[in-house]
Design brief:
The chain is mainly α and 617 residues long. It has 28 helices and no strands. It has helices at residues 42-55, 62-73, 86-97, 104-125, 127-130, 134-137, 146-162, 168-196, 201-229, 235-239, 241-252, 262-267, 278-286, 289-297, 305-310, 316-326, 330-351, 356-365, 367-385, 388-401, 406-422, 425-430, 436-457, 466-481, 487-495, 501-553, 565-568, 573-592.
Amino acid sequence: MEKKIDHKLEPEISHDSLPEQRAPPPKTLTQKLENPLKGIPHDKLYEDATAFAHEYGLGDDAEKIAKGALVAQDPKRLEMLSQLTDDDKEAFRRESTHKLHQTRELWLLVACCSVGAVVQGMDETVINGAQLFYPQDLNINPDVDVWLFGLVNSAPYLACAVLGCWLTSPLNRFFGRRGTIMITAFLSFATCIWSAVTNSWQHLFVSRLVLGLGIGPKSATVPVFAAETTPANIRGALVMMWQFWTAFGIMSKISIIVGFVADLIFYHVKDTANIDGLNWRLMLGSAGIPALVVMGVIPFIPESPRYLMGKGKKNYPKALRALKRLRPSDLQAARDIYYIHICMTEEMKMIQGKSAWFRFLELFTIPRNRRATAASAIVMFGQQFCGINVCAYYSSNIFVRAGFSELNALLASWGFGMINFLFAIPGFFTIDRYGRRALLLIGYPTMCAMLLVVALGFLAPFDKQIIPVAIGVYLFTVQYSYTSGPVPFTYSAEVFPLSHRNLGMSLATAILWLFNFILSITFPALQEAFTSSGAFGWYAAWCAALFCLAFLFVPETKSLTLEELDQVFSTPTRVHIAYQFRQIPWFINRYLFGRKLPKEELYVFDEEVKPGEGSSA
């Protein structure tokens, strides 16, 4: 009998040693998804699903769950299932024909997560406009105290990397996804008000450190919450809304909530007899307003069904009610709860008796997890060291150095934020159509070219620097906004198995915030040591390096269920790299010479459906 391989526990083995791979076709690796329901006769599967429904308190929906189980076994057999009525089949067909026809609760959930990202964006970048004013009031000379200036600006990201992100798992365990978002939103609101009333750089530094404790868990929880609640066929677009609205938040840091021009309005605010620096205090405080919206909406959206099911059998009815609110039809909800249960059962076998520390180590010791960790780390690192947050945090300072007045620098920064927001829209439509990997491979080289334009612009005579610097920054932002901007959080939220997802996402966001901290604290000193031209040339070089890393080590994940991704990351790295190099001649022939050559496929997830195959005897 052919041996079944458990890819979740699979060591680094040669595919040539497997019976079915002794003589693989040249240049092709065929990988078959081991669906936990595969091979079960229909009558047995129907019986098992019905028994599951009664055992877990879902008896009223037993028939729907049984029908859903048959569809989950092989969605391509939908039309062959005699147990389904025409209305049942139409409900499942609409998943493909009406992808954006979702429930009001699902859109409300995504909107809530999106506003949470507005909080994120404003928390991160509201310091941009304020830094033109607060150093003078708090006795900091940005041209001399470069490290102190960078430390105050980067304080939240230090707290995120060291502690904030690692609070994600315990907060999610005790308070759930919704509770964690509520707590972190409150923390963001409170610390924004706190930072607005500081009277020394030490006081401002501490308030921004505490702000990082809100940013870290929120940045890790919101994408996972969205990924766990959205259908696979539109998951990328919806989870990507996190970055879309983070871009909105970056634009909002120089805006008032309605008019998007807060920094510009507050720029002219005069000090009062009792308040010095009222303008920058209002800028910092305004970032807390969207957090109030999140706190007001979060009670009205359902908890993650996966999280509820993970809390025990008694919560399954709650999970099904949540899924019914998040799916267009009860049949889809019934299918999803059974398939999630089966996959969770398989994954939970892996962590029985394992501590959180042991599971953290398994992110590096299990090959499937190690590949996901490496790919996630690359895209998270790349989101920072492509150089975008140099512009997000220091654009006002950069534009002043290029010859802008303070007011024009704020206007130019507002333009940067607006472009970041607007050009995230193409990412919403392309992330699931072209894929995460493809967007990265487009984005890194084009961003590299635009940063070189900025670097060369600073070498021009001072009175001629404005145009190339502004054009370079804006075009760089265009490329970032639909490529390296939306991909990392979407990618990281989906690549880890459920058993390691909280820890994996905590690690991914910790990496992001660590390099965010490094970037933001070092840029003032880097600018002084290398000049502005050299600093931007440094990040252009990183974009070139990131293209190579993404090409070699970042697999595609588009349109795959969260469970199917196990198979992708079970492919040995050397096989993936060899395949990518073999695609270079195909790409050249296809897109440069127009030759319609067949493309080699690395993964094959489904065999051709044959009538009667897999049905009960």
